[in-house]
Amino acid sequence: MDYSPALMTxxxxxxxxxxxxxxxxxxxxxVFEVYTRHLPEGRRYGVxxxxxxxxDALERFHLDDEDLKFLSDRKVVSPETIKWLENYxxxxxxxxxxxxxxxxxxxxxLQVEGTFGECTLxxxxxxxxxxxxxxxxxxxxxxVSAAKDRPCxxxxxxxxxxxxxxxxxxxxxIGGFKGTANLLAAQMxxxxxxxxxxxxxxxxxxxxxxxxxSQIAAxxxxxxxxxxxxxxxxxxxxxxxxxxxxxxxxxxxxxxxxSLAQRVRNQLDALGATNTKITVTNDLxxxxxxxxxxxxxxxxGVGTMLVTGSGAPTCAMVxxxxxxxxxxxxxxxxxxxxxxxxxxxxxxxxxxSYEYNLADCxxxxxxxxxxxxxxxxxxxxxxxxxxxxxxxxxxxxxxxxDAIMAAHEYRAQALAELPITAQSLMKGEPVIPTETxxx
Length: 439
What we know:
Its EC number is 6.3.4.21. One of its GO terms (biological process) is NAD+ biosynthetic process via the salvage pathway. Pfam families: NAPRTase, NAPRTase_N. By secondary structure, the chain is an alpha/beta fold. The chain folds into 2 domains: 5-136 and 312-402 and 417-438, nicotinate phosphoribosyltransferase; 196-297, Alpha-Beta Barrel (TIM Barrel), CATH 3.20.20. The chain has helices at residues 11-23, 51-59, 65-73, 79-85, 116-120, 123-147, 162-174, 183-189, 199-204, 208-219, 232-243, 257-270, 286-291, 304-307, 369-374, 400-416, and strands spanning 29-36, 46-47, 93-97, 102-103, 110-115, 152-154, 179-180, 224-226, 249-252, 277-280, 299-302, 317-325, 331-333, 347-355, 358-367, 382-383, 385-390, 393-394, 434-438. The strands form 4 sheets. It has a 7-stranded antiparallel beta sheet. Strands 7-6-11-10-9-8 form a 6-stranded parallel beta sheet. Strands 16-14-15-19 form a 4-stranded mixed beta sheet. Strand 14 (347-355) and strand 15 form a beta hairpin. Helix 6 (123-147) crosses helix 7 and helix 7 (162-174) packs across helix 8. 44% of the residues are buried.
C-alpha cells in the first residue's frame, strides 16, 4: 500500500496547524518531549524501540497532490495551510534514548525541537510507533531473560495487524529475539527468517511418513519436523527413520511442553539422534518460558503474547510541549498542571548513575537551553541521549539492519547494568528510581 506517513495523524494536528498559521504562533520555536508517567503495572523497566522506524517515516513525511486534495476537499485546513504544506519538510532536531536502552517513568525518551507547526504534525506518528514497538521490545526482553541462553523466535504475525506484525518482528529482535517468521520484516530489515511446516502440511499427505519425507527432500535433513499432529512418540520414531540421526530438529506445539520435551529428548537420544534440537511453541509467554527452564528445550517460538506486549500492548507514552518561544522571542519552559497529568517544564538532559558497576538511579535534569549547557554531571554518570536528527539531517547510523543489530546487543548490555531484580518476573516497582532536578 502506497501511503504518506504525514496522514498517519489525528485530524486535530492539522486543525491546530491551521489555527496557529492564522494567528502567527505556528512559527514559534518549541520543544516537545515523549515520556511515560508510569510503567505497566508491576514491570521493573521498559526497553526503547521504534526510533529507527520514526526516522524512516520522517524521510517520507510529506504530502503529495492527492493528499493535499483530500485535506482541501474535506475542509480540514484552509487554502493558505495547503500552500504551507506543499513544501513541508521537518527542519528541526530530534534527540532521545537509543534503541535498546532501558527507560523508566519520566525518562525523556524522545525530544523533538522545531517550530510548533512542524513538530505538532509528528505527535500521532511518533507515539504510535514508540508505544507499540517499545511494548513489544519490553515483553521480548522479559521473555529472553526467562529463556536464559535459549533463543526465542518471533512467530506472532498471524496474531496481530499485518503491518504491526512487521513492526513487532523488528522490535522483538531489539528486545533480544534471534529471528522472525515474517518474511516482509526479514526482507525490510535483514532479519533472520525461520520456519518449516504447519499441521496442514502433514494432513495433506497420505501419511506422516510421506510428509516428513517430502519436507526433508525439499529442505534437507537439518530441517525441523512438527511431531504433534497425531502421536508424538510415533512421529519422533518416524522422523528419525526418515532423516536418520542427523535430523536437525523437531517442534512440539501442544500439550504439557515440559514433560513432552523430556520424553522426546530421551527418545531422540535412544534413537541415536543426540544432536537433534527441540523447539516448542503454543501460546508461550515469559512465565511459561520460566517454567520450562529445567526442560530439555533448545529454542522457543513465541506468538500472541509477544505481539501484544504480554498483557501491556502500550507503554502509555505521551507527547507534551515543554518549552516554547514567547511573544518577545525568548524560550520559556511550559507545563501542564492537570490533576494526575502534570508535566515537568523545560527541555531535558538524562543520565544514569552507578555504584559498584550497577545502575542505581536515573537522573533527569530540566531547564532552559542556557542552564542545561552549563550543567556538569557527576563523574561516572552515563549520558543517555543521542542525536537522531540535526536541523533536518537524519543520522543514518540509527537506521537499517546494522542499527537493529547494534540495538540488540545494546539491550543485553544495558540490562546487565541494572540490579538483578530487573529480571524478576514478580511484580514490583521500577528497579531504579528516577530523580528529576529543575534548574
